[in-house]
Write a structure and sequence with these properties.
3 domains, five-stranded parallel beta sheet, alpha/beta, Helicase, Ruva Protein, domain 3, 13% strand
Length: 342
């Protein structure tokens, strides 16, 4: 039971031949990388606005004398993990975990002397949360800076100045290129084109696509929702089909988002979704999280560690937080599920 002819265009990692309404950003990126000295770039904007697609498309079109290295900072969220990934990408060899950071740095520097390299740090917010300043400081200070450029892709950071040391920023000096949220018309155009490439003819009603485009400005979520609906019906997708599949589609989207994280991340998110009334505070969440751990035979993590995991959920766009300072309760953080996933 499925309306899907071709899975690839509905997958999040699919890179289309052209990217809707991002021509000015594409030109800005391409122009920056055509300079004699490879630049450092901060590509920022909300989730689902084409930043990763732009970057992936761009690195396939680089000149032959530029080697590119893509690092997903969700999985490589510390300096050492990122350096291991970079060393493996440069050499094509597995990098043992036992290599000390300084040894990795020396081996990487030897490889950067004669060939130009472009490093992409995607989802850089996860690295910045774990003192990514150390990695950026090292990369910005490597000898022969003309041979090395960095693209920092962020969904939460419009300026690095408050995130890294002044000395790091003064050397890095990234050019800022921003992406704006898609309008519902732009989301409609993107989903319509992907549906045309992926689904059986006449399998998607116009009003269903209009409803989907108006329900989310995050194209990743929209594509996932469309794919889930198409895989679970044999009838043309209507607006009612999307409404009926919304809850499960959002649940599967969350599961996929957290699939590379720990059981504690998933348990924490279930604890947050356990409440009926929002917002809630971190103390309420931690109490409920411990109850969920007990039911799942998990040893609870410390309150401080869970605070870090709350930030991970926020960086993924799964929850929203607001911190208040002062008052009789002092500093208080209120938390609720993302409005996109209600």
């Amino acid at each position: 039971m499925s309306l899907v002819d071709n899975q690839r265009p509905l997958q999040p990692e699919y890179v289309p031949g052209s990217i809707t309404d991002r021509e000015s950003e594409r030109k800005a990126l391409k122009q920056a990388l055509n300079s004699i000295h490879l630049p450092n770039i901060l590509l920022h904007g909300p989730r689902g606005t084409g930043k990763t697609l732009l970057t992936r498309q761009l690195i396939t079109q680089l000149e032959d004398d530029i080697q590119h290295h893509y690092i997903d900072c969700i999985h490589h969220n510390t300096e050492h993990k990122a350096l291991r990934k970079l060393h493996t990408s440069i050499t094509g060899e597995d990098t043992p975990q036992g290599f000390h950071t300084s040894k990795l740095q020396r081996k990487i520097e030897k490889q950067l002397k004669h060939v130009r390299h472009l490093i992409v740090l995607d989802e850089a917010d996860f690295l910045l949360q774990n003192n990514g300043n150390s990695l950026l400081y090292y990369l910005s200070r490597i000898n022969k800076p003309a041979n090395l450029g960095i693209i920092i892709v962020s969904a939460h950071t419009a300026s690095l100045q408050s995130q890294i040391d002044e000395r790091t920023y003064s050397t890095l000096q990234p050019r800022r290129i921003g992406t704006e949220p898609y309008t519902s018309e732009q989301v409609y155009q993107i989903l319509s084109e992907r549906a045309r490439q992926s689904l059986e003819p006449t399998s998607l009603h116009h009003e269903a696509l209009t409803y989907l485009a108006s329900a989310t400005e995050n194209t990743k979520l929209g594509l996932h929702w469309l794919r889930h609906a198409a895989q679970n019906t044999s009838q043309p997708i209507s607006e009612e089909t999307l409404k009926q599949t919304q809850k499960q589609a959002h649940h599967r989207f969350t599961e996929r988002t957290l699939s590379h994280h720990t059981d504690h991340h998933r348990t924490l998110y279930r604890a947050i979704r356990n409440f009926d009334d929002y917002p809630i505070n971190s103390g309420q969440i931690y109490t409920t999280y411990r109850e969920h751990c007990r039911k799942r035979d998990l040893k609870p993590l410390s309150n401080r560690r869970i605070s870090d995991y709350i930030q991970h959920l926020k960086l993924h766009g799964l929850i929203e937080t607001k911190t208040y300072y002062g008052g009789k309760h002092g500093k208080t953080t209120q938390i609720q599920p993302s409005s996109l996933l209600q």
